[in-house]
Amino acid sequence: MSRFLTRLVYLTFTIILGLLIFACVNTAGASLPLISGHTPQLVAPVVAALAPVVEQVEQLVFVDLKLSIVYPVIQNFKKIITSDPLGITKSWVGSDICKYKGFYCDNPPYNTSAITLASIDFNGFQLSAPSLDGFLDLLPDIALFHANSNFFTGTISSNIANLPFLYELDISNNLFSGPFPTAILGMSSLSFLDIRFNMFTGSVPPQLFMKDLDALFINNNDFMQRLPDNLGGSHIILLTLANNKFFGPIPRDIAKALSSITEVLFLNNKLSGCLPYELGFLKEAVVFDAGNNQLSGPIPYSLGCLESVEVLNFAGNMFSGPICRSLITKGVLDVRRNCIPGLPFQRSILECAAFFSRSRHCPYYASYFYIPCWLPNFSSPPLATLLAPSPT
Ligand SMILES: *[C@@H]1O[C@H](CO)[C@@H](O)[C@H](O)[C@H]1NC(C)=O
Ligand SMILES: *[C@@H]1O[C@H](CO)[C@@H](O)[C@H](O)[C@H]1NC(C)=O
């Protein structure tokens, strides 16, 4: 109320002063701003003298102490932003952090009457900055950080492990480089990790697949490593490793814990070896894409048990054997550019002949003909009871 009164007095003063000047100078130009209630240009020096006082007072008033703590962190980050084509940071002024573009406030979980900076959504802002260090890692209550499609570079600070509430981290489609940020392994609340479309190199620590993540997107980086054996040890629902250089076979126990997975994207890597028949136990799978790898051997009949599947892509590999043709008829299974006799759009005879000339065989050959969902108690892979040792 008192602020309103101050403004009213201030405005009245301005108008009177303007009218006085207008009466003296009587120029057409000065009369126009008066109609719209704006400060006439001629009194600008007076306004300039008053304005800093008003702004300073406003800057000091934070609705919560927590916001006054993150204020300098945000302002320091703003200073290192080198490009902001959409003018986002223009809104990052004053004490009302909760109204800054991209910033969202909420009550922290430990005090429901406090107000804190809870999430950041910079998606598509096209900001350039040399680093997120000294920014993201200094936002103690942050729960969501989404910053896809910017031009952030550098590496990720190991201090992000100290953010107890951060559960969604999306830094996809930026210019981050260096090894996988291992600090991520120490993040206690993380359930969604998206670092795709960056330039990370080296290998992903196998412990990542033991974290309790719902979604893991690490596609379109430059990771080069054997597909970890413990892949099936996670409870991931969306797993995307596409467009890297993962090699080695798809692990046999993939279905152990991944039984709730709905999307698996392995395409465009260097995976090799035979498909495990246990893939047929990925009951919730909607998309399984292992296209453009170097996988070989038969395509197990067990895939016919994937009741929810809509896309099964095995195109561009070296598959040769049995196949559940009904999946092709349904338009679900794509096996073009393999070496499967009797099917259209396969690799050239020459290419396939060269491949078959090298002796290869898959273990548990009989398993390729099993259809586990036809067996009693179809729930987990009954491998031990069903399969004899590798017949070769
Ligand atoms: C919760 O937050 C409010 C507002 O910041 C504060 O006044 C109060 O002391 C806090 N309560 C506790 C238990 O920390
Ligand atoms: C199938 O499940 C039933 C009931 O749970 C159980 O009695 C039976 O032994 C199981 N059969 C096999 C082959 O595991």
Automatic annotation (TrEMBL):
Keywords from UniProt, A to Z, are:
Repeat, Secreted, Signal
Query: Which Pfam families does the entry mention?
Result: LRR_1
User: GO CC annotations?
Assistant: extracellular region
Q: Where in the cell is it found?
A: Secreted
Location, primary (coarse class): secreted
**Cited InterPro entries:** Leu-rich_rpt (IPR001611), LRR_dom_sf (IPR032675), LRR_extensin-like_regulator (IPR051582)
- Which named protein is this? Leucine-rich repeat, plant specific
Q: Which organism is it from?
A: Heracleum sosnowskyi
